[in-house]
Amino acid sequence: MEVNVENVPQDLWEISGAAAKYAAVISRVLRVDVEIVDGNLYRVAGTGRFSGLVGKQMSSASGVYRQVLKTGRPLVIREPGFSEFCADCPNWQSCDETFEMSTPILYRGTVVGVIGFVCFTEEQKAHIQDNFEVFFDFLAQMADILASKVVESMEYARSLALGQLLETVVDKVDEGVLLLAPDGRIVRSNRAAQQILDFPLEGQDAIKVELLRGETRLLQYTEYTVSLQGRSHDVAGNEYRLQHGESSSMFMFRDAQLMHDDALRLASSHERLGLDAILGTSDVIVTLKEQVARFADSNSSVLVTGESGTGKELVARALNEEGGRKEGPFVAINCGAIPETLLESELFGYVGGAFTGANPKGKMGRFEQANGGTLFLDEIGDMPLHLQAKLLRALEQREVTRLGSTQPTAIDVRVVSATNRNLEEMVHNGTFREDLFYRLNVIPIHIPPLRERPRDIHLLSKVFLEQSMDRLDKEILTIKESFWSAVSEYHWPGNVRELQNSIEYVANVVDSPAVITRETLPLKVRSGMHESEYADYNLETMERTLIQQALKAFGDETGTKAAKERVAQKLGIGIATLYRKIKKYGLE
Known about the structure:
With 588 residues, the chain is of the alpha/beta class. Helices cover 40% and strands 20% of the residues.
């Protein structure tokens, strides 16, 4: 059957709001990505990967929809990339779709558009194929409903059909589903809803439900408090206004705690970084990688040291990813970035009402969040002394107690700490607990500064430049030798982080195709500052020079204890500290 698509009215755009709502409902029910296009292949609505393409016309990769528009018949593609209708698609060889079903939207015998859904995983494909007939009919009737929306006289029929269709698939969904009447009574529910909210199937039509929307988002869901039969339940879900017949809304939801766990895993472990993320071929980096591989399976605490910007968190993540805890969460907290008054509750959590302003539901601490995985304590040297004692107890007893509670919670967490400070000196000065230092420093790993691995600068610069240019969709025409000379001569006091930021600056200022030269680098890198002249001009060098000058000015030739006490007094440090620093800097 040949169906004319010329001179088609723009009716789909007149109902774009409704189209977006139905696309969202279909996507949620079928667990696939959905798009709706008009007769000219402009996207009227879309979910998931297609949500950002609404209003744009499809490219040549639209052979399937063109065929549906031409014939007015549904089309199922079970093996995308291998169908004859995929032949003109420029991405057919790298197609990541696993299944596609498309249905025409007919308006008074004319095709005005196509509604289709796409699977991107084998799990989605299996789910559709297991319920093929139900979902095929569902999609076809959804197309009819969209068409009927155009004709306002069919509004009641459309609404009634929608409710009937939802009821046919409600038990096929693994989320809780409630179809609610205008007064909040349950019209229909599925087994998941009955289990999560703990109510019986019998007599459900007499149960009234109250939905209280929260402000917190969990992934693609919103937190709700569901009240029924004198009980309240915390869930995460979405509400869809249907306004048809007996049902006025559909509420689809999941258990909030499970969603919190999912959100945590995505937030803390969204980026799987193993040894490949530690870039470099210098001897010191090869040795570092060997250390990470050797200690990855251990449960012992690790202390990663190195200057700021050397990549301490990369090493911590690699320890997690290369070992037996890779399936567990990786949770990071910067002990120096969180106010001291909040750090304790962030680490150990609290119960509801523990302090003024606390969440009445309480909050899980980072230790509990990292259970079964790795907790990364960055800038551990900035942790106040009173919290150091509590951290030590948590490590030794393998349990934590939330603020306001007396009930401890057992934890299975590997702790990786990092610092750019000298913890041993802090122990001597009394600003860091000695027992905690030894507990954290079971396995020490030191990351060398970038200036000690000059061979890696070229490799890192090239990788960072390619990544930054790709993100900005720019091309590199050539890289001049002056650029390589500049990055090789610079001292990089900020280490890898400073190098990466400088290269990102380059990618932003150049045109495309780009000629990369010394002049495209930040001023301080390319200017005549010659950082190499100041390579040793750091705090330790300044301290050594100051002590040396004080010994010369206030000491005497005999080097007696009295002379050194006078020097220590002038410097404002203890005599024991002075002796230690004299030995450290070879000033005996």
